[in-house]
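the two lines:
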Amino acid sequence: MSERLFQSRRNFLEKAGLGCGSLALTSLLHQEGVIASENPLSSGVPEFLPKAKSVIWLHQTGSPSQVDTFDYKPVLQKRNGETLEGADPKTGFFTTSGKCLGSPFVFKQHGESGSWVSEILPNMARHVDDMAFIYSCYSKSNNHTPAMLEANSGMIRQGHPSIGSWLTYGLGSENGNLPAYVVMHGTKPRGGDPIWSSGFLPSVYQATSLDPRKPKPIDNLARHAQFDDKQQRSLLDALRQTNQHHAEERPLDRDLSARLESFELAYRMQTAAPEVFDVTAEPESVRKMYGLDRKESKDYGKQCLTARRLVESGVRFVQVFASSTSTPGGGVADVPWDGHSDIKANHTACAASMDQPVGALLDDLKSRGLLDSTLVIWGGEFGRTSDSQGGKGRDHNPHAYTTWMAGGGIKGGVHYGASDEFGYKAVENRTSVHDIHATVLHLFGLNHEKLTYRFNGRDFRLTDVAGKVIQEIIS
Amino acid sequence: MKSFPGFLLCFLFGSAFGQEADVAFFESKIRPVLAENCYKCHSASAAADGKLKGGLQLDTRAGIRKGGETGPAVEPGNSAESLILGALRHESDLKMPPKSKLSPDIAADFQKWIEMGAPDPRDGEIAEIKADGVDIAAGQKHWAFRPLAKLSTPQATDQKWIRTDIDRFIRARQEASGIGANPIADHRSLVRRAYFDLIGLPPTPEQVSLFVAAADKDFDSAWGGLIDELLASPHYGERWGRHWLDLVRFAESNGYAFDKDRPNAWRYRDWVIQSLNADMPYSEFVRKQVAGDIYAGKDWDTPDKAARALELVSATGFIVSGPFTTQQTQKERERSRYEQLDDVIHTLGTSMLGLTVGCARCHDHKYDPIGAHDYYELAAMFGDVGFSDVGVDLQPQIYRAAKAKYDEAHKPLVQNKSTREAELKPQLDAFLTDHAKAEAITAGPWQSIGPFKAKDFNVGFADPFGPEIELDFDPAKTFEEGNKKEKRAWTAQPKWQDGEAHNAILKGANSVFYLQREIVSPKAQSVGLSVSGNDGIKIWVNGYKVGEEKRGGDAKADELKVHLPLVKGKNLLVMKLANGGGDAGFYFQTSLEKDREPKNVTPILKVAPEKRNDAQRKILLTWFQTHDQRWTELNVIVTKHAREEPKPDLTMTYAAKPRGTTYQFGENTYKVFHLHRGNSDNKDDEARAGFLRVLSRTSEAHWLGEEDPQPDSRWSLVKPASATAKATTLKVGKNGGVTVSGEKPLTDIYTIGLPLPVEPTEITALRIEVSSAQAANFVLSQLTATLNGTPIEIESALASFSQAGFAPADILAKTPAPSKGWAISGGVGKTNELFLIFKSPLSTGGGNLEITMVQESQWPQHLITNFSFFSTAESDVRSWAAKPDVPEKQDPEKPQSREALAEWLTDIDTGAGPLLSRVMANRLWQHHFGRGIVSTPSDFGTRGERPTHPELLEWLAVEFSKDWKLKPIHRLIMTSSVYLQGGAPAVGGPENDPENMLYWRKSSRRLEAEAIRDNLLAVSGRLDPKSLGKGTLDPKSPRRSVYLTVKRGSLIELLQLFDAPDAMQSIGRRETSTVAPQALAMLNSEAVRNWSIDLSKRARPTPETKLEDAIIAAYEIAYGRTPSTGELSEMVAFVEKQSKGRTGNLETAFQDFCHLLLCANEFLYID
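prediction for all of em together
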């Protein structure tokens, strides 16, 4: 389809004229299927100097309670059991009591920044001076699936591209032999595949999602049993020859050779990808550091360790969805942090599954010099209520939650925004998901207002018509 | 054009200025900030330049106080409520100025100023802003929105090349650009092209040779014959139906959390396929999808009518295919409803009209002449729509016959019971006198006997054994069992306690046991019995059967509750336990009469006998009947027989249904309001249904006023004239509703009087709306009505259990008998409906209808919000659908009908018909050439691409709209030289038109995902060509890909890899991506390897087959051609090399070769 090259250039210029700049040039042309001999995921050009090269997003599915993790509220402790003034018992999914529920956990201040951390997160507490805490996040939905969609795509409805797809669209991949956007999960989080959908973006930008617990995390990666390497290579050589004959007779249909290249890339991926996913290649000490020897943390530890290996290999966007083997107190496998009935039991178990791995990940990235270029994000899809649900639990709370970021251009030890004295509602520097997305894109050198894609007549953005870069947390 | 007067604003000002110092503060601290930072977007001049944002003008006092779309910017004296402060501090969703936050000092100044009372010396009116900045007349000049123009075909000199009128348009442009003509492609390429284009499957080698032979003799006749044959193939609809399914985001599950299946949604997919195969005119195709359920009417009484109804209802799958989330919080429901409507409007706009109507949801469309007003008016067309499985009985006569037979058998049973009731009536007083003196009963120990072997459980349950045969329950009596070889005797069971589940105590599968005990009662009374038997139980008292039940599983408390009517003195209780597998068991517990006096009876007993009204007496009688053994037995017979009532055999389809299931959030659920910036928390007026003005060509009266398809309402609202209750307070509200408040006793009786209309109307039903103020149930035990004091009969009644969604039209179809124990489930804010249908129409002319409701359980606070009368005299189903909530004063100009929308969409003269035709003609072209004449097929608006051949598109649209049939257009396109030409460069083409916009060659195209998979199935010989029917999620299914279930949460991986849509939004043009995971799937997946093996077996059926022959055969099957000499020798060499590497295994090596053929570009790309 040679003619489309020119058509696309015209399209491209039109899009550029609308503010795309030189951004996503390669991607744009590839989206039209036109740059025949190159990898459509080859690295793009950011608009300004990027601070981050890759991101590891640790999504705490089900949503941790801000007041039991990082957002310490002495007033809430003091007024435990008293009426929470202005509480709306219909804030969450069920009905809450309107009575303050103090955190069952002990908080201490850590680091030079004096950041408060709950006793259940001793390993993360070691890193507070690398973290920027946003205490004033809020979401649009009080229900898991739409809030998960929002956290990932900025929209509460399905069909919009996730941030990982947008970043891949904007920047491509650093490693031609591996997918650019990898999602890891145990049990699939509530909402499933559409959470990390590429939406209306071309499927080139879709996530490769996998369950690292499985023996073959990526489909079709292993050579078919009928072939050894030599036989497969010989088939590929013959295939190349056949395709070349075919293409020579059709010199104007240029995307034929793109397909030829895709087989070569596939051949290389067969070797590269399994190596990255093989955590047994790591020394025993490293595996232990990530908690792979402990039942409660081994799944999450494996995901964190794999995440580091992926980032090290040039994968752009790694997303890890928490799933826990033990979810007492209201959580279930697809929303482990969902402590509706007993926040203490639930958060103790969830923290035990992920605190050590996350601490290890930060240590490991730092010691390898990767933290500077790797943005680590930790947070849920919303917060939890400051009043109790059924005495000991907490319901969903879209009005306030805490997210922290570290590495990749983040200023450490920063406390940004604030919730009210009960941790019930974000009041100062209220931060929407769009703001977080705008900030992440900015750290990658992308202007969230200019990264657009035309679909059904409209130029769409990850941040829709909103979003503000949080300069205060950027180093 | 319609005008929108709402926003013409003239303000008169009160002029109480503050003191001078205050004004100075404003002038020094406030005005400069506003001028510098805000006026650019928020002032009269911004409004004049069309740059006004958010409808907010800050350059006058009036403007700042009135505010914009989100409300007043300043509330004098109240800084907390003043939106401007939150915006300045960047604390609210609005952050102003957007790019830079002003200093906290400035914000503090503003706070101070507002607390001072916001003194503001500025005068002036708010500049007039048009509510709707859309210039329709100008907008209609855009090429796509004009009426269809009849064009003559252009002259082209190259008559030889020209085969059809299409070619004249194409060739004339080429000649003008100095481009030569391209000869037609070779016959083998053409037959392959035609097969994949029209049916999406490869031709067999035989089909190829037949065509080539025929074409060599007479190409035109062979080609015309081939096209006709393919268009007549049932596979045509499967191929082209899939293109349509892309546009309508078709899926068979809800999406979102839990992704609930829609097991009947495939009927819509079949409807699309069948409609295309039948060459249904596109106008009809469109109309049925928009309003099929309305066309279906309610007369489904014959198999023909029912089949037609199923077809029509299924067509509305178009409306309901979008995602829907079942896990919802209350706060999300209204917003989700608007998302749902947006999905419908957006899909309708892009698929049918090529318009991005969805853009006008938050603001007037930025580029196209579609106002937000148009958007909500269009959305209001769908305001009544819910999503439901709809059942159609395709053989209604069978049900009718069975029902008649049942009714005939049931009638005498009911009659027997009624007779007994009449006999009991005089005994009531005596009973009541005795009732006060309830006394304890004593029950003797159990005696058991068994097992008696039965063939199976059912026989055991039905047939009598031992003591039941001989009707002799003397504990001394024994019975023969098992060919008289064994004896069974009664055994005393003194350890069996009441109120405990005795499981697995009686051993023997497929057997029967009898239990008996003596019960002594000091007087005649009815005691309650909670009983359970594993697996089946029958109970008699003194020879009268008082209960029976079949069930599996362990016995446990409260499974079957019956009355045990006891006579004074000794009573014999007998139970039969019929057992299937495992061992038998039972549970037994009696409760004293006093303890189980019905809640509704107690308060009546306190009323002096002479003061009890009819309703109360009836309640007492109903209760008394349960004490009578004879009545109890007759009641058991009626109840048991009632379980055999036949049910219609419904065929289910997933479709739109007026007032069907959707997100329920109270009275506004089925209404559509104009929203500010798409925010459902910020409503304006209710939207009336309307059409896009830009596409409504003549007077809008034609669409909006002239014809009102709605008959007058059959509803009228009535306000209660009186309302009384015993213990609670009933208050008649201004809205005609009745509030029940105060203490909430367990039982109460409400009597509500309603004045009948004086005008002579035939009233056949009463509708009562109930809103729950608290989440609890509302259960009625009795419901009676009197007209002017005379009892009238309620024939049937229905309640809308709010979750299910409830179409009033159901009343016509169902008439269950009114019964006690109606439960209306609670749920705050939910509106429930109660319909009472009277046995005979109420003759009116005034009068008072009195409805008495007796509640059975706790009655929470409810609002009985509306009463309305209904008459079937003007039976027009549409008004059920469209106007369930008719306000007191009707708006005659409010045609709320999807029927009207369907007509408008397809109206070529005054409606959207021209655009509808252009968009579809372009889609047909696009799927034949890979690119539309308009290359943005779902955007014909001003931002879409212009047509490369506007005259051709116009001409095609005119041709198409003559009879709206697709097949003649396919034929027209495919018999044109522009379609038939080859892929080589034409003279002058690459130089003068490098983008091939003028179609000087046919470029090769990659097959779509489904066609790739179908091609793999076809060449491997695995394809199951079966058409239609329920699909499967199993990717290994040999059926065509269009029959794979589209489950949003588990899409078929192979199809996803090759760019199949994710069924979330309308897709008009698929991407063609080329990525490594595709290659990995082709190379390494078990499926592709297996298909390669299957192909190898077809090409090389025996080990003796010569390798060259086998290779040739494989080429013919996979590519429809023979290999060249060079290819043949290369492939022989390849197979031999692979064979060597596999220790001489030629079979596997040949499989490798077949695998290669399937991986190669020639398999996926069609010339």
